[in-house]
Design brief:
mainly alpha; 2 domains; two-stranded antiparallel ribbon
């Protein structure tokens, strides 16, 4: 007998695209709740993001040796957060599609940096609407803005 090992990410991917028999087999081994959880229920921390993607956390020591600062490191981590929460969705740079961004409030006091809401824009080629740190829904943008506020603060401030 051989044992097959699957990462959580690979199991979820197979479940989405698999036949009914495959789904039954995966549900028997992982449990039905494992596949019914929303990404928001699965991802609460940066460590959860890395586990979802099957990636190692950003090596901050190595990044600093390369001359990166805390803003650069936060950006790298936020790109992982965006990829994990979007579950494979990637904004198309040249297509007109809605994409959502968290917005923040800051009044020159470090303790006053706070999530303020989310907004969206079409992907017209104009300043103010990018395609990198955006989300496929307002729910995900709101969640990321609140749940990962410290990372956004490190990136923006």
């Amino acid at each position: 007998m051989r044992t097959l090992q699957l990462s959580d990410q690979k199991a979820r991917s197979l479940y989405k695209t698999g036949s009914n028999e495959m789904k039954e087999l995966l549900a028997e081994n992982f449990g039905k709740d494992f596949f019914s959880q929303s990404v928001i229920d699965r991802i609460k921390t940066y460590e959860d993001v890395c586990a979802e993607l099957g990636e190692s956390p950003v090596d901050e020591v190595a990044c600093k040796k390369l001359g990166m600062n805390k803003n650069d490191i936060a950006y790298l981590k936020l790109t992982q957060v965006v990829r994990a929460l979007n579950e494979g969705w990637v904004a198309k740079v040249y297509d007109n599609e809605d994409r959502w961004y968290p917005w923040f409030y800051h009044n020159e006091s470090p303790s006053a940096f706070a999530f303020d809401g989310s907004s969206y824009d079409r992907s017209y080629a104009a300043a103010g609407s990018g395609s990198r740190l955006c989300f496929k829904s307002s729910e995900l943008a709101d969640y990321a803005g609140k749940q990962f506020l410290d990372l956004w603060r490190e990136f923006i401030v």
